[in-house]
Amino acid sequence: MAKEVVVTAEQVKKRRKANKILAIVLLVLLILLLIFYFIMNIIYNEGSFTISMDKNTYLNSDLVMFESMNDRSSVIKLSASKLEFMDNISIKWLPSKEELTNYEGSHNGENYIAYSFYLQNRGDSNINYWYKVIMDDVIKEADNAVRVMIIVNDQETVYAKRSPISGEAEPETTMFREDSDGTVILEQRAGMVSDQIDKITIVIWLEGDDPECVNAILGGEMKMHMEITEEHTEEESL
Q: Which of 39, 77, 132, 168 is the most buried (most CB within 10 A)?
């Protein structure tokens, strides 16, 4: 004879309460996943590289930023076109510095991101400004082999992460900073005189000659951006 199962009202109440709690937990997890998805979608679809002016600089300084000499309207933000896939290449395969700086805006090539823009001092006094590059997010340590070339007018500098083997800078590069806020590059451009225009070109690629450029970083992603800030000097313009 089968044993009779007796379910009390209290048990039913507890089961309903547990089911309700489980449903709430699942709903909260779903909402969190959606929020995470939308945040990551914004981060990785806004562009592979963005340049923005500090809000205070944009509103209160004589330093202006624009993408084209044909339209010098001041903007607060610029975005480079995205590459869907980036294979490793050698710096030797890049176009010459003269070719890279001969463009405006996005001019990506095969397996590298390239972007050029302008800064102009429209005031009467000399200006110092700073540019910094911040690493926002990295997947599968793709930054181990990344190179960032910044050309300010004719001055070219290539930056890279510290070599994990030697602990020193990679050959012919300036070592990334390791600031807690993700800043990897921080430089000052001093003494920009009245009405002067600087052209800045950024080039980003994965260096195939880097010992850290291994199969383990395949499928990796990274997101970085540049910020511009300004300060007037006490000197009078020349």
A: 132
Render pLDDT for 218-227 as a digit per residue (tens, 0 to 9).
Answer: 545 677 899 9
237 C-beta neighbours (distance < 10 Å), count:
16
Q: Are 159 and 205 in contact (CB under 8 A)?
A: no
Task: For residue 120, give the amino acid letter.
Answer: Q
Contacts of 155 (CB under 8 A, 6+ apart): none
- Positive or negative, the CA dihedral 75, 229, 174, 46 is negative
Predicted pLDDT of residue 17: 73
Q: Is 168 helix (H, G, I), strand (E, B) or coil?
A: coil
The two structure tokens encoding residue 221: 């992603």
Confidence (pTM): 0.75
SS3 192: strand
Determine whether 43 is exposed, middle or buried from the number of CB atoms within 10 Å of its CB (0-12, 13-18, 19+).
Answer: middle
Amino acid at position 178, single letter? E
145, 207 in Cβ contact below 8 A?
A: yes
Q: What share of the chain is helix, strand, coil (3-state, %, to 5)?
A: 25, 40, 35
DSSP one-letter string for 115-161: EEEEEEE-SSEEEEEEEEEEEEEEETTGGGSEEEEEEETTEEEEEEP
